[in-house]
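your task:
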Amino acid sequence: MSNPRSARLHRLLGPRNGLEAAVMIMAALMTGFTLWAIREFLTPFALAVFLLLMIDGLARGIVKRVPRFPQRAALPAAIILTVALFALSIWSIVVNASHFMSQSAAYTVRLNALLQAVSGRMGIEVPPTLDDVLDEINPSRFIGAIAREFRRVGEGAILVLVYLGFLIASRQGFAAKADALFPTLTERGEAERVFDHVRAGIESYILVQTTVGIMGALASLVIMMVLGLHHAFFWAFLIFLAGYIPVLGAAVGVLIPPLFGLVDFTDAWRPLILLVLLEGQHFVVAQVLAPRMQGKNLNLDPLVVLLALAFWSLIWGVPGAFLSTPLTVMAMAILAEFSPTRWIAVLLSRDGKPYSDGKAKRTS
């Protein structure tokens, strides 16, 4: 008489299932290699698709929340608002960068004083100056690499905008193409359900990250203004932008103002207090508020968010880190539709129910 538990284990680990697992692993490896090999093309296109979904969600939100707003004007209004926000971001960075350059002489004096104080504590008789440190580092070695990186980022941004323009232009034909690809009502309903699930997940991600980022930025702004840090609004804005990179973005963002405080403040205790307070508010927002909102709206396991960040950062770099959570939400929505891959969606989910109602919609 066979043991039922052994029989179930044999079914799970039998030759057929073992072969299917091996095929899936090989397919995952090949997919990862392909994504890495053509990253120069896929990265701007993925960012453009993400922006399109963000604009589409903003347009539908305008129609829903603004009384009597013309539906035909919602998409142009969303595009104008998005472009204005990006333009404001670039303007803020340029203006503050020029102000930092104008204050470089005062910062040099403060840095020399810091070097002298640190050298005195370390027993160095002849303290180095900032010029000595720069001569030793020889920044000219990195100017070429930095310039190439800025050029690559600029070209990538232009390519994203080009893709976005063509996606918006071809948006009107999506419905007709969907009707041709899925001729029956059943197939069309399943495709629409997957798309709605993906769109809802990405919109939830944007809502959660924006809300969490605003809370963290406002708390940081209050702390920096109370302590008297210059350019507090700019640093709060950078903390808000960094919050769109899950797990690590805001944690790194709150380290920059205290470092700047070393040359902005005339004492050593305020930068330390600033660091403690910023890290404290980040811990509350990131470890208490954000997980609750993400669990309610995204239904992603926290460990999956971290692993997705590592994977997509390895494949696509900084854009991959930015898109890691939306791509994982999209993958979970698609994998949950098919029985051979539904178990992966279950593992990705926080509560084991990839769908909001906890029921699978398709069985084959």
User: Anything to note?
Assistant: Confidence is low (pLDDT under 50) at residues 356-364. DSSP finds 16 helices and no strands in the chain.
